[in-house]
Specification:
The complex is a heterodimer of chains A (102) and B (435).
Chain A (H helix, E strand, L loop, with lengths): L12 H5 L4 E2 L7 E3 L7 H9 L5 E3 L5 E3 L9 H6 L5 E3 L7 E2 L5
Antiparallel strand pairs in A: 1-6, 2-5, 3-4
Chain B lengths: L5 E6 L3 H12 L4 E4 L14 E3 H7 L11 E11 L4 E7 L10 E3 L2 H14 L3 E3 L4 E6 L5 E6 L5 E9 L7 H4 L11 E10 L2 H7 L6 E9 L7 E7 L3 E9 H7 L3 H9 L5 H4 L3 E11 L10 E2 L2 E3 L15 H20 L6 H12 L2 H8 L3 H7 L1 H20 L6 H16 L1 H15 L1
Parallel strand pairs in B: 1-2, 1-10, 2-7, 4-12, 10-17
Antiparallel strand pairs in B: 3-6, 4-5, 4-6, 8-9, 9-10, 11-14, 11-15, 12-13, 13-14, 16-17
Amino acid sequence: MTVKPKIDPLIRVEDKLYQNRYQVDAGRPHITVKPHDKPSPALLALTRVCPAKCYEETETGQVEITADGCMECGTCRVLCEATGEIEWNYPRGGFGVLFKFG
Amino acid sequence: MIDEKFDAIVVGAGMSGNAAAYTLAKRGLKVLQLERGETPGSKNVQGAIMYAAMLEQLMPDFREDAPLERHIVESRFWMMDDTSHTGMHYRSDDFNTDRPNRYTIIRAAFDKWFSKKVREAGATVLTETTVTDLVYDIRGKVIGVRTDRRGGQVHADVVVLAEGVNGLLGTRAGFRQMPKPEMVALGVKEMHFLPQEVIESRFNLKGDEGCVVEAAGTFSRGMTGLGFLYTNRECVSVGLGCLVSDFARTMESPYELLESFKQHPSIRPLIAGSEVKEYAAHLIPEGGFKAIPQLYGDGWVVVGDAAQLNNAVHREGSNLAMTSGRLAAEAIFQVKSRKNPMTADNLKLYKTMLDDSFVVKDLKKYKDMPNLLHTNAQNFFLTYPQLVSQAAKNFVQVDGTPKLQKERETSRSFIKARSRLGLVGDALRLAMAWR
């Protein structure tokens, strides 16, 4: 009965984020991933669940973040602040995502 | 930063913060409102539907200059499988009045307008200012905030935490817990621009009439979630949200889900040829009544999304936010008028007022709904939409099969999927949670 909807494998979230306005606070990322050997399932899930695809798994199996495209939704904070693997702060006033429409 | 002391500091310039700051300033209190965005609204995301009644309580004549998009004359509720939707539509000319009940809005514009009203009412509004900490006296009462501005400490009798669903201050202070993954949905949406006349012809609208579509079904792949499509004047907001716990469990990606929703044959033609100008993401409180945290303490109150005040069943949030902000402000004004200190004992008045309002009464009515929908997500968001679609198809398709046999096939498909007991149980559980 179910046919999985066809999804264009070439959807790039970068193309979506390109439409957005950001004031990047260069050199002061507001989210950091703490050094780890093996990510928890929650941290690993962020490589799929983060809506801006800020989290990526490295070749050696760790998870790293590039927060420039972050929309400050807080999903990663909800999932990984409790595991202690990330530190989440607001960007400094005026920095970060600036929604044109919201 | 600022040497003078304020009667109240409001942290955040969303719906609840603006309603609180506006009410406090109108009541003559000395108010400082702090917002980390470049302008009020630049960090805020909503669908967005705005309910007029709650704004009217603040500003009876808001319609004169508020940036409203369309007043809603038609609501469509869809249950979708992969290729079809079964719908319930309500459209009424009665919504074409001088004082319509619901409008679509675009938050960036709306919040700027709201903030202008707050300033006109006499509040001091500082943007591009992130509040980093609360400041306490030796007895543990909140007496102000620290910001990321130079010399950024500022004092007040009371701090209104209108810091949103992802508020850091209240959770770090231990006033409330971080939302659990099953208590928040992650919503993503895009703004699809189309010529005004194209939107009007595709949705059968004239003038500033608006139409909203809200949908559940197989596009959420068994997760608890909703999709939506709201008409604005010159653009359509298209988005969906699912529980964070479901996203983490299934490892689905929100933007892939949004793409497949947009490509659904019932959605695609409505946004065909559009130009996307923004992609946004935000959390939505979904915990309901049982997730409401402690609402007040010594020198502080919490309002809006930060307090999980969101009615997920009716998809109402900004009206609960505005009302909680207004009531918190009224309570603060009353305590102040009696020349009483802003202690927990005195600020309890806010909770009493909120409990007595539609905000808590409505959330209480649906207190069991989040748990029901979250624990039965597969049934409600995958199995039933497919069954309903099949039943509808069976009903309309004329192919020589005798009607009695068709009906039997339909009821058998339901029983096979959920069993007789399961069907009765689901109906009962839903009725109980709705009661």
